[in-house]
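Worked Example 4.2. Consider the chain below.
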Amino acid sequence: MKINPNCNAVYGVATWVARKMMQPLCWRCTRAATTYNVAGGTFSDGLFSQPSPGVIQSTRAGQADGYIAVISNDGSQLVRGTYLGTTSMDIIYGIQFDRNGFPYIMGVSRGGWWVINANFKNDGSKQFVSKLEPDLSAFVYSTVFGSGAPKPNISPVAFLVDRCENVYVSGWGGWIQPGDDPYDLALTTGMPVTPTP
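Applying the procedure from the previous section yields the following structure tokens:
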């Protein structure tokens, strides 16, 4: 939905979002403000009524997949979209753009997320960061980080890409109440940290 600065008029609504079984968790406008990008997780096989040609993944692969939907500035049409997921549960919690228009995503996967062109990785981990081509046709790089536990260490809450293309992720993990953790996280124990000087 796009609203004017006085919040008294709606310019456009992407109505397809409400009709699909999806969970939009983040959105970002491109630097040129020509499109909006919505990302999150979905159980829907028909999220995109017409698959976008040449994208990374045109169909859902698992229980729930992450997705990116590129929506026109006025909200009237879906420009392009891709699923991003393994055969398990995958959710995108953040989307950002660098100054050259490349999208970056961050999230969690219960499967084996892609590791491509990445010097830094923690094998088997369930948090991911990926940089994609602007047309969503391929990964520039993709990596995983965490302790290598069989489930996510954290629930990510913040994501940033700076002007030098450094990537920052923040999140929380752990359960201090009696009983089972309803979020089913692996805790932060064993996650790599920078040594204290």
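The chain has one domain: 2-172. The longest strand covers residues 22-29. Compare this with Example 4.1 before moving on.
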